[in-house]
Amino acid sequence: MKCIFEDQTFSFELLRTMGYAPFGGADIGECLTTAYRIEEGNFESWYNEWYKTAERIHALAEESMSRGKRVSARECYLRAHNYYRTAEFFLHGDQNDPRILDTWGKSRNAFRKAIQLFDTPVDEVKIPYEDTFLPGYFYRVDESPRPTLLIHGGFDSTGEELYLEVVASALQRGYNCLTFEGPGQGAVIREQRLPFRHDWEKVVTPMVDYLETRPEVDAKRIAIIGISLGGYLAPRAAAYEHRLAACVANDGLFSNQFGEIGRRFYPGNPQDFENPAFVEQFIGVLMSKSIGVRWAIENGMFTYQAKNIHELIEKTEPITLAGVADKITCPTLVVEAAEDHFFAGQPQMLYDALTCPKTFMRFTAEESAEEHCQFGALLYFNQRMFEWLDETLQVNN
């Protein structure tokens, strides 16, 4: 599926941004006209044009707010939040670029203004975690105990984005939600500089502890949903945190070792990858030829706080569910997108390693849902996922 751009990475990120339109996070015309202004493959052009659009829509939100137009302001704040997020996406090659905090901060602030105007209550929360805290949002339908979803993203998502991706659909179906950012994500990497960790159960257990304190939560029906890299992180947590009643891996990910990925591109001796100088040179050439590889390495260096490519490879070595997946006991849904350009083959590997009650759910091009994490077809994805959750958690909707 190609949207405006020939480059796969630019096309996919446009589809991602535009795909939130059904949930109020985008307007199709705004996205298309912005994309037409962008120079193919140019990160600076991407930033400048999305930032212009975000600023324009944010100004509309402020104007509506000043006139007491609550619904209009909410709609514009939600779109501005998504456009600022998109603008910031390719900036991580220079971790000291001041635009990272500024633009991401504007995205978060626009979202926080939007949720103050929601019809359902939203609490900004800080969950105690080791010697600090992790930020989140608790969304509730009402005050009665309900099944609750614990939702997190992956390699590049933000906690605010998760509202558009899952929460809006969940609230309509009677689910409460706690979205959060862990190490390597959102505010935690940008403000606290805490990098990703492979043992995600250390992150999820404090979340479950917190949910058990809330009277609106049915503690026996807490399900975890992990998106993108979260397709590894959520199953990893479920392997050791057995209070979870269900797990969704979208898309399923068995291993995300950067060294393993790099070796697939190299026809020579795999032992060459043990030489740091060779690794830097070889991956550097790939980065110069591929926007996708460049972005993945730059974002990896940022989110893992790696000093060089060789260190990034070392830090991702533990990211595998080998010897872990068979410890999961709760019902698990493994999702596969047929044309996933990130995780090809990985969902089946995860599914095959599971010994718990398990379901494999495939999305295809015929369904317009073949892209990574079903972007462009989120209404359809959420329909199928929530029907599985309803049955698994015995929810009547």
From TrEMBL:
Keywords in alphabetical order: Hydrolase
Pfam families the UniProt entry points to: FrsA-like (PF06500)
GO molecular function, one term: hydrolase activity
InterPro entries: AB_hydrolase_fold, FrsA-like, FrsA_esterase
SUPFAM superfamilies registered for this protein in UniProt: alpha/beta-Hydrolases
Protein name per the record: Alpha/beta fold hydrolase
Taxonomic source organism: Brevibacillus fluminis
Taxonomic classification: Bacteria, Bacillati, Bacillota, Bacilli, Bacillales
